[in-house]
């Protein structure tokens, strides 16, 4: 027993967090481009008008747009079989509502794909990863509006036809269930109600009705994209992408257990139930009623959802948390979905609780529930790294984190889970999505770039680079 022979070992990035070149070759502004830098404990700001002299980390990011050949060569040196990256929607449709795609954008990703294929690396493409065109936010408040489905499908058609024969795996939306929480509204759905004044990222007024109506539109868009992909190329496999936020009842008090069930439904299952089973779950109505949401549907929507179920499930896994009915228990830090800290676990410097066993639990849970192939497309430790005088970076803590998670993946495979691959997050250092900082590093490749805007973007191999290379070489035998 062990990982399959063709297991997709690799790494993951997102365009807005690594490319830079934010206004080059016809690219439009995405929702990430209007977010300033921030740091742990100090939220980034959303500025609907780009401010002169303000630092926007996505504008230069790590210059992957210019250096992708060098980066992919490094991935190949590690032995990657797969590279998960996103196409920045605003390179293809700068404002989002154009009729014709931007050729320079299409050409760029063709080069990225060709570069991967040159090394036998399978591209795994996220169609929308926190890169909604800001033009569509201004036009119709993005996914709040049903017209987004057409804009998204135009975009899908352009890339599905252009990359036919070169790409096999697509993901419709990154962490779609981030919109079960307020934080997903802007990044995931392009929703911004205040278009005049800057807002603090974590303090936007939240309107659940918008988020859930937006999700309905995204479910339809995803289902139609699945059908379109299969029509354009029967070889295409289309997956969803969700955050799996492992969650435990804080105690065996039945109140905690019931609360935990509610948490799972709302955050872990709601979206994937629709995308994998093709229908809203039975609990949806009461859950939505409880939060004052009523979804507007059109005739035929149920049919669309039914016909467009995904081929495989992918998810990000970073941490777990607990649910407690005790009002004294305060929610801790987390990857968007939050929860009460678990006294049995330690946390990263950013307060994300490290729980490798939760990954085995997640894999089994999703496998039992949906009976579909699974892929872990994000996992990793955001940490501060130190470059020694001799240029080495001894990130043993990262190796430890990854090793323990891979061990648990292996156990899940032994449990019977059909696991396609593993692409740890930020295989190369990049900008953090939640805090907008460079200091929170995930990579096996260090990038010399800092939060004060200094640095020459040089790439350095960390100790984890060599460690992961050996993991891949031995198909996960040597950890
Ligand atoms: C996920 C996102 C990624 C990524 C990662 C790490 O939520 O899909 O874009 O950034 O989390 O989060 P952060 O960068 O905030 O540490």
Describe this structure in words.
The protein has helices spanning 15-18, 57-60, 64-78, 89-92, 103-118, 134-140, 148-162, 184-189, 208-232, 254-277, 284-290, 301-307, 356-370, 396-414, 463-473; strands at residues 8-12, 45-46, 82-86, 122-126, 169-171, 199-200, 237-243, 246-249, 312-316, 320-323, 374-378, 419-422, 445-447, 459-461. It has 479 residues and is an alpha/beta fold. It has one domain (8-245, 266-317, 351-473): Alpha-Beta Barrel (TIM Barrel), CATH 3.20.20. The protein has an eight-stranded parallel barrel, surrounded by five helices. Strands 2-6 form a two-stranded antiparallel sheet. Strands 8-10 form a two-stranded parallel sheet. Helix 7 (148-162) packs parallel to helix 9 (208-232) and helix 13 (356-370) packs parallel to helix 14 (396-414). It is globular, with a radius of gyration of 21 Å. It starts with 7 loop residues before the first strand and ends in a 6-residue tail after the last helix. Residues 14, 17, 174-175, 316, 335-336, 378, 382, 425, 432-435, 440 line the site of 6-O-phosphono-beta-D-galactopyranose. 6-O-phosphono-beta-D-galactopyranose binds next to loops.
What tags apply to this protein structure?
479 residues; alpha/beta; eight-stranded parallel beta barrel; two-stranded antiparallel sheet; 15 helices; 12% strand; globular; binds 6-O-phosphono-beta-D-galactopyranose
| SSE class | alpha/beta
The span between the termini is: 15 Å
Report the average pLDDT across residues: 97
Radius of gyration: 21 Å
Estimate nothing, just give the exact number of structural domains: 1
Bound small-molecule species: 6-O-phosphono-beta-D-galactopyranose
The amount of beta strand, in percent, is 5-15%
Q: What is the CATH superfamily label?
A: Glycosidases
Shape: globular
